[in-house]
Amino acid sequence: MTALSVNVNKIAWLRNARDGSRPDLCDMTRLIIDAGANGITIHPRPDQRHIRSQDVFDISAVVSAFDGVEFNIEGNPTAGPTEDGYPGFPQLIEAVQPDQCTLVPDAEHQLTSDHGWDLSEATAFDRVSSSIAKAHDLGIRVSLFIDPIPDQISRARDAGADRIELYTGPYADAAAKNGVESKEADEYWELYREAVTHAKEHDLGVNAGHDLNLYNLTRFCSIGSIDEVSIGHALIADALEVGLEVTVQRYLEALSNATLLGR
Fold it and tell me: What Å distances lie between residue 189 and 162, 169, 176, 193, CA to CA?
């Protein structure tokens, strides 16, 4: 079954709306893991608008207390130190040494990750390859945020990546606008299925993320061979209605249903 990694950025964002520590990010991380999540994802940005630098260390300590739970840190490998205390993405990775780091091409003040790497550009390819090699020296698995384009997936493997994370925004948009069983959504589903097949043929693991939710998750993951999904915004929004523990369990059920649907 596809693993569920819960992105807790939005919990940190809510905490940061007021001075103080509520909701407590470490307590919420424990609750998510106790509810059955397979991993925790964070994306510490240089402006620290949600995950703060200290959170990275605190959450790492929480996750490491659980056997078999993965810690995934997302970020742009070119993000360096800032005056407000952000130490730089490479520095955080080296200090914490998560199970996986996911490299994304986000600009410093980008609202959210909305496109994959263009590895046809030599500068980007060289930068990513160097970052992957450094992470591997630390024993960290590396995933690259990639659009469902076979050539880009092949270049990800050439750069040394262990996995790709497919940017799923276009599929989610088509499903939301036209219905999960629509022709438009099916066309994107087939595009992503071909991307997954291509990645597996090149010995790459496959993660997926962006705007996946309880409406589209089962259908999307029925593609099969998807190792992990990273879900944050939709899951935290759902938790406001039914509670965090129940929401995590519903997402796990959706992934289980995807396994049955894909048979």
Answer: 23, 12, 13, 6
